[in-house]
Amino acid sequence: APIYATKLTLGLIKSKLNDNQASEQFIYNEINTDENLRIGPFNLKFFRVNHSIPDGVGMIIKTDVGTIVHTGDFKFDQYPIDGKLTEFAKIAEAGKEGVLALFCDSTSAEEKGYTLPERDVGKTLHEKFTQAGKRIIVATFSSHIHRIQQVLDVAKQLDKKVAIAGKTMLKTFKIASELGYLKIPEDTIIPITKIDEFPLKKIVLLSTGSQGEPLSALRKMSLNEHTRVQIMREDMVIISASPIPGNENAISNTINLLLKQGADVFYESIAGVHVSGHAAGEEIKMMLNLVKPKYFIPIHGEYKHRIQNAKLAGEVGMPVSSVIIAQNGDVLKLNENLCRISNNLTLQNIYIDGFGSGNTEDIVLKDRKALSRNGIIFITAAINSKKSEIIAEPDFILKGIIYIDSFGEMINEAKQLVKDLILRCFKNNLTNSSLIETNISDNIEKFILKKIRVKPIIITKIINFNAN
After folding, report:
1. Do the beta carbons of residue 152 and residue 181 sit within 8 Å?
2. Does the pLDDT of residue 468 top 70, yes or no?
3. Which of 163, 168, 350, 391 is deepest in the core (most CB within 10 A)?
């Protein structure tokens, strides 16, 4: 299968696919904004945009029914870190020729005015680095190459050493530097194993974990579980990212843990350590005025963001009937005379485990949910069905069951119940091991539910020493 992407994006994709032994299944095609591309019935032209990660592009897609413009993630940064400005001329040219529909980033539509330039963060980083009396730990997205570049540049200016913490950060750092997207100042990077060889105030740690991810380097530091870095009093921690919706609690918990260990923590709401990579209201209006689409479809962001984006379209004169609020799975019917939702695909989460995958209806996932909530009980018993005898005392193995004061007494009662059930089966001429197992599992489940109000998975194995 073919993959089309810009140089850095392609490098990151290849790395991810290599990690999953899937890289050879794809054909890689590097694109740039100077070349046009034809895929099937579509002619594609790309225009450079500014975003948190370099090489971001929007698309101008020419179809039989009209031209579609897709902004991708974008903002208008007038002084970008890599010096590559948004290609306004291409956007305006498309608008002049006529655009049927604009699909536009909505993530920061609620923000007034213009998104601050990335260089503003560099000024704040310089200020904070200068104030720091001990180590500095900066957590950001590993893909935020411009932010990483500014950390390196400020560290070099202040004669500090930078060490990388986190596998994802190390991998992205390596790819970006090899492809020429990171300019590493001479004599600035050191291995994390060497940080103890320098004064504390000379050390900057560039870390993953800006979203409170459970296995990230910063999270491990906050829990005092990192193998190389233990948080010290007066360490300065800078979380240079904004919370992705849904991650707020994880981030807050990480910040609290760091503060309890004595670190000074700076984050977006109390210091200017982050700016968005997405267009604010005035930039979205500018995009609308440049493109002048017949139809407008807000994309990317929560529903409330798309609603606000739709309102911005109204502010520049687009009629309500020309704005479509679509949701995941919606199918749009689009031609020169109409744009409407014609169908909806049913979407559901697909969980991947090793080489297997499945949806939430799969029995495997239901079992895992039950295991996580209520635990599991293994029961074994040895019998001689020919003689109607129990050869060995039933054995119970419990995993994930909450201990209670009368635990031992409950297990003894359960063992006696198993013996009674086996003898009852013998009395009723029921000697098939599978049927006896089912009978025991069903009755022990009811017994445990009555005793401790949980419903664990019960697995029973009957060993019949004289089945023949």
Report:
1. no
2. no
3. 163
